[in-house]
Amino acid sequence: MLVYGCQMNVSDGERMAGELATIGYRQTDDMAAADLILINTCCVRETAEDHVYGKIGEIKRLKAQKPELIFGITGCMAQKEAGRLIARAPHIDFVLGTNKIHELTRVVQDIEQHRGHVVDTALGSAAHTYGEGRENAAITAERGQVLTGQGRKLSETEEFTAAYGQLDDLAGGPVARGGQLSAWVPIMYGCNNFCSYCIVPYVRGRERSRQPEDVVREVAAAVAEGYKEVTLLGQNVNSYGKDHGRADFADLLKMVDAVPGIERVRFMTSHPKDLSDKVIAAIRDGVHLCEHIHLPVQYGSDHILKAMNRVYTVAQYRDLVQRIRAALPQAALTTDLIVGFPGETADDFQQMLAFLQEIRYDSAYTFIYSPRSGTPAAGMPDQVPDDVKHQRLEQLMAVQNKISAEINAALQGTVQEIMVEGPSKNDAAMWSGRTRTNKLVLFPHADEQAGDMVQIKIKQPQTWLLKGVRV
Ligand code: SF4
Fold first, then answer.
1. What are the E-state strand segments in 317-437?
2. Would you say the CB of residue 195 lies under 6 angstroms from ligand 1?
3. What is the tens place of the pLDDT at every residue in 362-413?
């Protein structure tokens, strides 16, 4: 299984591996030895799609040598391209959309027996997206007809079940997790926000929250398997529960915090418009809820925030940060930033730099805007030239790196609790772990084991990490 993209895709990949294990498949690193190859795709950037098309081409040779090999495409690009993928590369056996993990074993077993092509990208479930499901069923049927000459398409009954049936991925199923300490637990799928540069709402559909009992059950099962930390995942975790109304995100945090044996609870990602005072209070009052909030601002001027359809202003975001810091003075705040959005002026950019200086994030993921076809921003006028984007990115990173180094320098001499992860990549004598605020810490290894909680005195703070010794 090849997985591209975000943590949500990694989590989906673990669920697909768990489903496939129930019908006898095990993972291998040797692609030539595989009986089934699955690419779980991302389409957030065009370059990610180009990469997948390159892999699809490579696998054509393997399939020619081993015709019984089953080859499937899942994830966001599968959702977006559907039958066009098979029309372009007929050696693909099946294409499954983003809400189809529960269909995977059935489709694979069907192809084992009957061969032929299967395309299923209906997003809907009767409970949440009835209208959308109807529309997608129609699209699937239409694409199925395009494919009729090349192989089998889903029967009408199967399409009906896919579009209107109760089954979807919300209940959860078997999971073959990677890692040993930290488990990804999706709490919701989809997004309602339609930021103008982002394709996610089109390929993952509207927000659908899992039931709180299902989330708590999964967290408890992960703890029973030995995981000490969970990260609750969603495109916008702060709007959790708005669809079913049974618990909101703050309620869910409290429920997960109370799972016996859990040591740390993290979450991502937060849309600032939905982060409530109730969530802030839950983190403040929680025991295992980590004091790290990733709060993507994306830009620091109202003009560009409006063009991005982020639906908050700089002043509203500033007010939110003040409320977070008043309640959680020790919390780390990180963000995502995009430079070179269409219409960005030199004045916008100066406002962005000033905003960074004012907020002082612990760290930031910085991106150059790249047009994503199918999104409103791709067609906006005043696209920023590449050389200007690159210059601005460098300036932005220089400002942020200085701030990160200053914030870390203030930790010199402090004692931090870290959860030990294992040997560092570059030096086996040094082991690494993370603070509750998600900062990477290196220390000389003695007898610590992965998963231990240890106290480290910080001796050498750096921009990206902290070095220290055990106390
Ligand atoms: Fe995309 Fe905006 Fe939804 Fe995040 S909140 S997934 S950026 S549309």
1. 332-339, 363-368, 415-423, 430-435
2. yes
3. 999 999 999 998 899 999 999 999 999 999 999 999 999 999 999 999 999 9
